[in-house]
Amino acid sequence: MRTPASWVVVGLDNGGTTNNATVLDATGQYLVDRLVETPSRVREGPSVAVDSLATAFEGILELTGTVRTLVRAVGLDTPGPASATGVISSKGATNFSQREWWGFDIRGALERRLGLPVVYTNDANAAALYAHHEYFGDSATGRSSVSAIVGTGLGGGVVQDGTVITGAAGMAGELGHVHIPTHGLLEEGQPMPECNCGFEGDAESFASLTGIEKNLLPYWLTRFSGHELASVDIRKAAKLLRGYGERDDPLARAVFEQQAKAIGRLFTIAANVTDPHAYFVGGGVVEAAPHFRDWFLATVREHTLLREEQVHAATFALVPDLDMAGARGAAVAALDSVQRPL
Fold it and tell me: How far apart are CA 141 and CA 225, in angstroms?
């Protein structure tokens, strides 16, 4: 634990069950080195959830011994879809399923509640931003990166010169919904994967927990007759699959290899669009056993087709500190907003 050298920003990571908070000072040092979680209460509606975010804010100040008057801005991230300014999608979202959330301005509501500037970033972009700054350090503002965050869906982030690219409507970096070439990726007779967004053959339909449950595992169970997961509810089986992969189970390795190849194809597209300095992979694979996550990342790299010049210029890495990456990335965005010249 550290005390602030001068003024600070606060990062708040809002999730389906908990909020995580951190404090970042003007020198770029975090004042807390662990998760600091409180209930998010998002299922109780916007008013209760905003109060819960305010509670997380006050709690992290008390924990770090930070005087409120030192706080210049607050960074907030939430799951999407949401606009670049923090308005939850008018069609709703997985974590914000109640109708009163649809079109709700969570950033503006928190700003009014705290009386401080609030800077919004979606959760995948926040993780991507943290990975970028943590990896590149002092040279972050002169580098670019692309991140794929594998979770229930496939989040992503594109960072250029140390800043997340948001786009006109805030939807830039939605890498999960980029269509990828499937020739040579699908096995003979394997159905075209479907995404919950309505697309077929996008990256998320392969590389996500939902993709495993809905598309990959049902197919691969037909190829491994008698596998013990065949008798398990498909939702539960999908969640158990990573543990099997860590034990080198052939079925699990086949599923995750297909996921890794899909991300490689996604990164190949990115290589020809943004030509980044780094490709980051985050999500459940980061939390897996080291031998498994290293194998997964190596497979992604093997199937990312780069030109010779790009091979020498780019690197592949895992998103660090994933459980804290959202709050820390939100704090980085807030710090940048304070330090950015007008």
Answer: 52
Each residue of 20-33: b (16+ CB within 10 Å) or e? bbbbbbbeeebbbe
**How many whole angstroms separate alpha carbon 27 and alpha carbon 4?**
9
- Kindly state which CATH superfamily the domain 138-320 is placed in: ATPase, nucleotide binding domain (3.30.420.40)
Q: Which of 7, 176, 189 is nearest to 94 (CA)?
A: 176
Instruction: Give the other-Cβ count within 10 Å of 197's Cβ.
Output: 13
Q: Which CATH number is 8-116's, of 3.40.449.10, 3.30.420.40, 3.40.1010.20, 2.40.10.10?
A: 3.30.420.40
Q: Residue 77 pLDDT > 90, yes or no?
A: yes
The answer to whether the 8-116 and 138-320 domains have the same CATH topology is yes
Name the DSSP letter for residue 212.
I
pLDDT tens-digit series, residues 194-237: 998 789 999 999 999 999 999 999 999 999 999 999 999 999 99
Which is nearest to 249 in space by CA: 217, 226, 227? 227
Query: Does the model's pTM come out above 0.85?
Result: yes
Q: What's the CA gap between 264 and 259, in Å, rounded?
A: 9
Q: Which two three-digit tokens encode residue 168?
A: 């006109």
Residue 1: the pLDDT is 52
